[in-house]
TrEMBL record:
<keyword id="KW-0472">Membrane</keyword>
<dbReference type="Pfam" id="PF03816">
    <property type="entry name" value="LytR_cpsA_psr"/>
</dbReference>
<dbReference type="InterPro" id="IPR004474">
    <property type="entry name" value="LytR_CpsA_psr"/>
</dbReference>
<feature type="domain" description="Cell envelope-related transcriptional attenuator">
    <location>
        <begin position="136"/>
        <end position="321"/>
    </location>
</feature>
<keyword id="KW-1133">Transmembrane helix</keyword>
<dbReference type="InterPro" id="IPR050922">
    <property type="entry name" value="LytR/CpsA/Psr_CW_biosynth"/>
</dbReference>
<protein>
    <submittedName>
        <fullName>LCP family protein</fullName>
    </submittedName>
</protein>
<feature type="compositionally biased region" description="Basic and acidic residues">
    <location>
        <begin position="1"/>
        <end position="30"/>
    </location>
</feature>
<feature type="compositionally biased region" description="Basic and acidic residues">
    <location>
        <begin position="248"/>
        <end position="257"/>
    </location>
</feature>
<feature type="region of interest" description="Disordered">
    <location>
        <begin position="1"/>
        <end position="51"/>
    </location>
</feature>
<keyword id="KW-0812">Transmembrane</keyword>
<feature type="region of interest" description="Disordered">
    <location>
        <begin position="247"/>
        <end position="268"/>
    </location>
</feature>
<feature type="transmembrane region" description="Helical">
    <location>
        <begin position="60"/>
        <end position="82"/>
    </location>
</feature>
<comment type="similarity">
    <text>Belongs to the LytR/CpsA/Psr (LCP) family.</text>
</comment>
Length: 420
């Protein structure tokens, strides 16, 4: 990563905690102050050690995927009655070409079996208006081992400074900027009036491939942020562990939106509170809690802390989906399935979501290791530019590629992120 002027990487949580307020989004969807013509021209160098940041995994992707799996796994001997529910889920999920296979003339033939190892790219978006290019608010990869019964789930910080490649479909010439902008850049489709999220996903996948060395993803999904409130409500709420006292930046105790300060720069009014301990949350509370990312609201490690909370939420959602209260209640299960399906756009590159459900039927929530890839803020003088991984992340990606990931993680237990 290079720019004009001296660049440095901070190892503490300071950069992540302040990045979202220091960085504005431009009309094109690119964070202001990063990228642009010319690129960076000087080296990025690490500086003093500080608090380790936690790059953990977010909410929706793991949940939407596991819902497809859970429906198959838990059907047992009563699959005949369950097929109707499965059909509803399959029908509710929007299937699109997220990797540009059709445009590239790919003629992939569906195989009878899905074999490991697998790499699945999962992206969460928070669309506010249909005419605004989508930003990738959460980017994560599920790496399933060759036996298809264990996996590693890791995220890439949305502010990770990367080289986004040239993408002719969107008339985009390439740029060095934050990762979350790749989807926005790629979503520009001259033939369509509105931004194309599926096309944006394609450019994002190309960018993630350059970062991780994963040449080809076996499947991918876009998960709509807002849909998860409906999923939680359909399940009757979710019980999860709150690991620190957090105050909401956005919501009042009754769930109403807080009032924006005159001229911007924050909100006014009482704040919803999330106290440390095991709590049962309604849909709006769960969604609000995992959105919090500022140290002044209790999330001391900023966006990395938010990622950790998302991971805890995902695990809690998975456990709730597996509970008897959901799977033995046909009406509740159907509501959950429909809510999950409507929140998901999926591409199996020749396989259906149901095919992955069967292939990953031995995969359980406790066999998925949550990985934290440490990093730090990238600064030019006092100006925050984004995030950068520490060198161990490259070693992790290399181990993914050569099949030695199990041994590597055993040798680096500090990369494992605890759910609680």
């Amino acid at each position: 990563m290079k720019r004009n002027g001296e660049m440095r990487v901070s190892e503490g949580g300071k950069g992540a905690g302040r990045s979202d307020r220091r960085t504005r989004r431009s009309d094109a969807g690119r964070p202001d102050g990063v990228g642009g013509e010319g690129g960076w021209s000087s080296s990025v160098r690490p500086i003093k050690e500080g608090r380790r940041k936690k790059s953990t995994v977010p909410r929706w992707a793991r949940v939407c995927l596991i819902f497809g799996i859970v429906l198959v796994v838990l059907s047992g001997g009563s699959l005949v009655g369950f097929e109707a529910v499965l059909a509803r889920f399959e029908g509710a999920v929007q299937q699109e070409d997220l990797f540009g296979d059709e445009a590239a003339g790919a003629t992939e033939v569906k195989k009878a079996d899905i074999k490991g190892p697998l790499n699945i790219l999962l992206v969460g978006i928070d669309p506010r208006q249909p005419d605004v290019p989508p930003l990738a608010d959460s980017v994560m990869v599920l790496h399933v081992n060759s036996t298809l019964d264990s996996a590693y789930l890791f995220s890439l910080p949305r502010d990770l400074v990367v080289q986004i490649p040239r993408f002719e479909k969107a008339n985009f010439n390439g740029d060095t900027t934050k990762l979350n902008a790749a989807m926005s850049y790629g979503s520009h489709n001259p033939a369509k009036r509105l931004p194309d999220a599926a096309q944006g996903f394609e450019l994002l996948s190309m960018t993630v491939s350059k970062v991780t060395g994963i040449k080809r993803f076996d499947a991918g999904a876009i998960i709509n942020f807002g849909g998860f409130q409906k999923i939680v409500d359909a399940m009757g709420g979710v019980t999860m562990y709150i690991d620190q006292n957090v105050s909401s930046e956005h919501k009042q105790p009754d769930g109403r939106q807080r009032t924006l300060k005159p001229g911007g720069g924050g909100y006014l009014g009482p704040q919803a509170k999330y106290k440390k301990g095991s709590r049962h949350l309604e849909g709006w509370q769960a969604l609000d809690y995992v959105r919090q990312r500022y140290p002044e609201n209790g999330v001391t490690d900023g966006d990395y802390g938010r990622q950790r909370h998302q991971q805890q939420f995902v695990r809690a959602m998975a456990d709730q989906a597996l509970s008897k209260d959901v799977v033995t209640n046909p009406l509740k299960l159907d509501k959950v399935v429909q809510a999950a399906g409507k929140s998901l756009i999926f591409s199996g590159r020749g396989h259906k979501l149901l095919d992955f459900g069967f292939a990953l039927r031995q995969l359980r929530s406790d066999s998925i290791q949550m990985i934290k890839l440490p990093g730090g803020g990238v600064f030019q003088g006092d100006s925050y530019k984004g995030e950068a991984f520490k060198p161990i992340a490259d070693d992790f990606f290399a181990a993914l590629g050569d099949g030695s990931i199990d041994t590597f993680v055993m040798s680096h237990p500090e990369l494992l992120n605890k759910v609680k």
